[in-house]
Amino acid sequence: MLTKRQNLLETIKGGNPDRFVKQYEFMNLIMEAPLGVEFNYGQTWKCHWGITWQWPEGQLGMFPVHDKEHTVIKDITEWKKYVTIPTIETSDEAWAAAIVRANAIDRNEEFVAAFFAPGIFEMTHHLMGMENALMALYEEPEAMHELIEALTQYELDFAKVCIEKIRPDAILHHDDWGSQLSSFISPEMFEEFFLPAYKKIYGFYKANGVELIVHHSDSYAANLVPYMIEMGVDIWQGVMNTNNIPELIKEYGGKISFMGGIHSGLVDFPSWTPEIVAEHVAQACKANGSKYFIPCQTSGLPIESFEGVYETLNKEIDRMSKEMF
Asked: Where is the Uroporphyrinogen decarboxylase (URO-D) domain (predicted)?
């Protein structure tokens, strides 16, 4: 029986996996790194970028507040006036928990996986609001290029420290690039503004021992897959069925793999049942096959909103492995 790591590599290289990869099982995520990301259910708080966040009780996630008072960048042409780049923690003390966790992982069995969020595109609209960020790409491209360059340098500085401290051999990197039906920006605009940034970031990780780039975007982004390949993404996590996954596998399998196919909103909700989960897992596995595809909820972490969903997904993936391998 292959290890989790070996089975993942066989899957994404089109080799001979002996079972389906079960969601995130191949990545041991180091969430203890001092990234500055907070998850405060039922609260309002300000993060290290000065962004005000809210996670209302009863809601499934958090999002920035973008009213006149709380929006960080009030004028993109003066972004340097409003944005203070946070200081990156470099001490062994700050990284102690992450180092202990990373050192305890059997790298023959699992990938030691760093985590980074929010990504470059998300940071632009977290700082100024979605409408303002999208308009600024058209109206003030020079200022947006400057902001993106600064955000990219911050990520590179963090990556340098992260690699030094925990020696990750994988990274799960978040940046949502679309809705369920379309990308937020055109491929041409993505190529101009965001491809260069990610080529730098993912290129740096790859040049420094990171074997596996897993990019999360739970969205439609089929029109951006060629750029994902160019920037070095090995696995697109969060791929929704609105992307026609079988066609993507046929066209791009061997260059990139696809992790998702199970819409979290259709399985992880208050009245979910094991039967509903079983139906969606079977559909995903049968439609997409055993190579270049990892059945997974589209959610960007190995978590659940309603108790029992994640483990039930894993059990059903095991069942499909027995049926299809």
From this structure: 64-293
